[in-house]
Amino acid sequence: MKIKSEEEIFELAKKIYKVIDEKDGINIKVLDMKNSPLLVDYFIIATGNSETHLNAIKEAVVEEFKKNDHQLLYYDRDRITDWIIVDGGSIVVHLFSEKAREFYDLEGLWVESERIKID
């Protein structure tokens, strides 16, 4: 797999956003993490309304990474929890139940990170 440019990574982030939106992900946020101490370009955060919904979103996100020939470092395969992570290295997707999203408050933790508007 070739190393992707910043533009290609941003385009993939937009595609993943759209996939989550098509699966009715709730309150989708994209955080620009390039200025953080983490080795990641974007966090994409969304809420699902049930374990089944979260799993469907996760499967669609994993498929989008694979369709775009982007290596996955890790994702929750079997475990269904209140917080599912799909780690594509430069893009990390966090899928939460409503209660877990409120509890872990990643947006609050990374309040200094720019929010990116995706149309």
Automatic annotation (TrEMBL):
GO molecular function (one): ribosomal large subunit binding
Keyword set includes Zinc: no
One GO cellular component, as annotated: cytoplasm
Function of the protein: Functions as a ribosomal silencing factor. Interacts with ribosomal protein uL14 (rplN), blocking formation of intersubunit bridge B8. Prevents association of the 30S and 50S ribosomal subunits and the formation of functional ribosomes, thus repressing translation.
Originating organism: Marinitoga piezophila (strain DSM 14283 / JCM 11233 / KA3)
Family as reported in the entry's similarity comment: Belongs to the Iojap/RsfS family.
Protein name: Ribosomal silencing factor RsfS
Keyword Ion transport: no
Quaternary structure note: Interacts with ribosomal protein uL14 (rplN).
Signal peptide (UniProt feature, chain positions): none
Compartments, record wording: Cytoplasm
PANTHER family, per database record: IOJAP SUPERFAMILY ORTHOLOG, MITOCHONDRIAL ASSEMBLY OF RIBOSOMAL LARGE SUBUNIT PROTEIN 1
Keywords recorded for this protein, A-Z: Cytoplasm, Repressor, Translation regulation
Lineage: Bacteria, Thermotogati, Thermotogota, Thermotogae, Petrotogales
GO terms for biological process, alphabetical: cytosolic ribosome assembly; negative regulation of ribosome biogenesis; negative regulation of translation
Main location as per UniProt: cytoplasm
Coiled coil: none
HAMAP family, A to Z: Iojap_RsfS
